[in-house]
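Trying the structure run again after the queue cleared.
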Amino acid sequence: MEHPPLLPSAAFAAVLGAVRRARGLTQSELSSRLGLAAAESVSRYERGDREPRLSNILRLANGLDISPAALVGATSAVLSGTSAADAAAAVQPGGGAAGLAPPAAEELARAQALLARLADGSPAGFRALVGMLEVQVKSAV
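Done. C-alpha cells:
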C-alpha cells in the first residue's frame, strides 16, 4: 500500500540536498548507497519532483547514515524558519540541536519523538506527526 507524503516537498528537498552535501556525498554516491543505478532519483527528491513518503524517508536517511527522525526533524526546523544549512548541520555527528534557535530545537525534538512513536507502529504518532507538519506548513505560508 502506498503511503501519503509526510513532508512538504520543497522543505524536504532543501534539507536533503544540504544534508547530502554536509555529509560530503555527491548525488551519485548517495544513489549508489541506496542501490540505485543513477543519481536521477536523488536529483528528483532534491528538486522537489518526488514526494517524500515514509519508505523513501527511511531509505534516504539510511543512505545518509542519519536517523529518519533527524531527517524529519531537520525538515520541520526548516518549516519553522531555520536555514537548510543550519538544519543539516544539526544532524551531523556532534551537531545535535545545540546550534539551533530554541523554537527550531524544540521542533526537532518533537519531530524525533513523534517519528519514534510512528516507527513503533503507533497510529496516534503518525496522526500527530502529520498534524504538526500541517501546522508548520500553514504558518509558513
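The first helix runs from residue 9 to 22. Worth checking whether this holds up in the mutant runs.
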